[in-house]
Amino acid sequence: MTGTATSATHRAIEAVWRIESAKVIAHVARVVRDVGLAEEIAQDALVAALERWPETGVPDNPGAWLMTTAKNRALDRLRLAALHARKHEELGADLDALEAHVVPDFVDALDAAREDDIGDDLLRLVFTACHPVLSTDARVALTLRLLGGLTTDEIARAFLVAEPTIAQRIVRAKRTLSAAKVPFEVPRAEARALRLESVLEVIYLVFNEGYSATAGDDWMRPALCEEALRLGRVLAQLMPEASEVHGLVALMEIQASRLHARVDAQGRPVLLADQDRSRWDTLLIRRGLAALERAETLGGALGPYALQAALAACHARARTVEETDWPQIVALYDALAQVAPSPVVELNRAVAVSMAFGPAAGLEIVEQLADNPALASYPWLPAAQGDLLAKLGRRGEARAAFERAAAMTRNRRDQEVLLARAAEMGTELGADAGAPSEAKKPR
């Protein structure tokens, strides 16, 4: 095969792996009862594909090829373990008898290998990778590796973390799951709500990092948004009666609809009020509204993700900023503050209040948050305060607030926007330039 053809085959393998790896790992994990070992076996199958497919061509059903190869290697591992466990037995003993006698779970493993309930396997993998026994950073890294099929380098670049750091997180996560003897299962009903909360948190963290990058030169990382959205859609198929799953999917669909409008041709941020709404993806909006309706039908209208989706829907339904139903947004933030209170929620509520009832009303709420330690290093606190002060004509104070916000952020694009806002306020700090309060500018 020529170099060009080999390269094309490798690209095909990479695409297949990204799509199929989670299913393969999930199914093998049910057989071997160890997530780390399951990934290792799945990687063996990938290596086999890289060796054979350039010569034989990509199979008609590449996913099934990977699954069968990984399944056979898993059974080989179990047989070898059985033989090692009873090495004092005659090696020529009947293998079937050996399997049944030596490894009590081996027959169950064979049954698991024969079954094709991929949906259940994926759900088990989701709950295992997002287990609360792991730190948040470990859950995110392991989820993107096992369920997203991302390489360690891709995860590291997405979060601007050194590749060895990500590799260590993944290795430690696997060891922690093994040491804690975390079962490869969907938890029972009484524990499922808590575990599901952890799963949704991980998916939303991934989406948010893509939607508003914490640090670096890029304002967004759309690939992370797409990955989180894919995971959310898979979870919604696996748990169709879980209202908050649909609420999270609705929120991500609607937010993702704005991605193309959030930057200009040079990659510079375009804030919500300035976006060309004709560039919003109407298909994603329709999908998001449908998912929100599903969440509400299931009785989850007051779930935290459903409420945030309802907030996003208010913007999606408005053709212009002026047509936005700001009093409704304030009411939704009031409800969100009841079910998921946080300083950031209150900060966003303050901005909504300013849009509905004037900047002075919003600034009054913001000033009450000025000394909250949870927002001490949150750049969107002084950014919003600067915006409200500017609307009230207090330009000197506004400039100081924008400069303070710019000094806090680690994202270059955010910093550029904030410094530009500061420059708009003029170079002189007039008599109104007191110690600035803090506020948040929504994006």
Report what the structure shows.
This protein is an all-alpha fold. The protein has a domain at 333-424: Serine Threonine Protein Phosphatase 5, Tetratricopeptide repeat (Alpha Horseshoe), CATH 1.25.40. It is built from 20 helices and two strands. It has a two-stranded parallel ribbon. Helix 3 (62-85) crosses helix 4 (95-102), helix 8 (152-159) packs across helix 9 and helix 12 (243-256) runs parallel beside helix 14. The chain starts with a helix and ends in a 19-residue tail after the last helix. Residues 23-79 form the RNA polymerase sigma-70 region domain. It comes from Paraburkholderia kururiensis. Residues 127-177 form the RNA polymerase sigma factor 70 region 4 type domain.
Summarize the structure.
The chain is mostly helical. Helices cover 68% and strands 1% of the residues. It has a two-stranded parallel sheet.
- Please give the alpha-carbon distance between the first and last residues: 50 Å
What do we call the CATH topology of the domain at 333-424? Serine Threonine Protein Phosphatase 5, Tetratricopeptide repeat
Helix/sheet category: mainly alpha
- The CATH class assignment of the domain at 333-424 is Mainly Alpha
Q: Flag low-confidence runs.
A: 98-118, 428-443
In the CATH classification, which architecture of the domain at 333-424 applies? Answer: Alpha Horseshoe
Number of distinct helices:
20
Strand count, sense and closure of the main sheet? 2 strands, parallel
Radius of gyration over alpha carbons? 26 Å
- Percent of residues in helical segments? 55-70%
In order across it, which strands form the biggest sheet?
1-2
| Number of strand segments | 2
The coarse overall form would be: elongated
What is the mean predicted local confidence, pLDDT?
85
For CATH, the homologous superfamily of the domain at 333-424 is named as: Tetratricopeptide repeat domain
Strand content: under 5%
Order of helices and strands: HHHHHHHHHHEHHHHHHHHHEH
